[in-house]
Design a protein that fits this description.
The chain is mostly helical and about 190 residues long. It is built from nine helices and no strands.
Length: about 190
């Protein structure tokens, strides 16, 4: 794909995020996405076979971007800084894209088996990268010797639970900074006295 075609594809995908986030998968129309992207409806079909194909490719791109971003977050020098940023940025994403989060976190997202396998693989890669960072934090003496895979599962489960709450039950806007700081403190200090 040449540079101009890739730019057009990205333009359509960027518009699709907004349309899916605003209307949800089932209410979004290709015509709406085309209008938001400033292209004709036929142009969307030059790049994507269907609305479902566009949505699936969008999810895979968002996950790839998320994994790339996680790599940047893992450069945080301390576990406390890492956790606070990890929670803050994930919660901000869930809050800004509630409808996409709702679709992703639902029991039946509109994806095929191959895309589901890719999403699971991306989730495993996220957990693997988190484990590597946590292993380093343990070696630096920033956390007690907890198995990194257990700590990673706890942190990812915690953020997914918070995201689920935001996507399905939250109508209000969270103070993401405050919630991220509190979530990081819970991970770092536990809930005991």
């Amino acid at each position: 794909m040449n540079r101009g075609a890739e730019d057009k594809r990205q333009q359509i995908m960027a518009a699709a995020v907004g349309v899916f986030a605003e209307r949800g998968f089932y209410q979004a129309k290709i015509a709406d996405i085309a209008a938001a992207a400033g292209v004709g409806k036929g142009t969307v079909y030059e790049y994507f076979r269907s609305k479902k194909d566009l949505f699936q490719q969008l999810l895979l791109q968002l996950l790839k971007d998320h994994l790339d971003h996680l790599q940047e977050i893992t450069r945080e020098p301390t576990l406390a800084d890492f956790l606070q940023r990890f929670f803050r940025e994930n919660l901000a994403y869930f809050q800004e894209n509630r409808e996409i989060a709702r679709i992703l976190l639902s029991d039946y997202p509109p994806i095929d088996a191959a895309t589901h396998r890719l999403l699971l693989a991306a989730n495993e890669e996220l957990r693997r990268r988190l484990e590597i960072y946590l292993k380093g934090a343990a070696e630096r003496g920033e956390m007690r010797p907890v198995p990194p895979e257990l700590a990673a599962a706890f942190i990812t489960g915690f953020i997914l639970s918070l995201g689920h709450r935001l996507a399905f039950y939250g109508k209000e806007t969270l103070n993401v900074e405050a919630v991220a700081a509190e979530a990081a403190a819970v991970v770092l200090k536990g809930i005991g006295r």
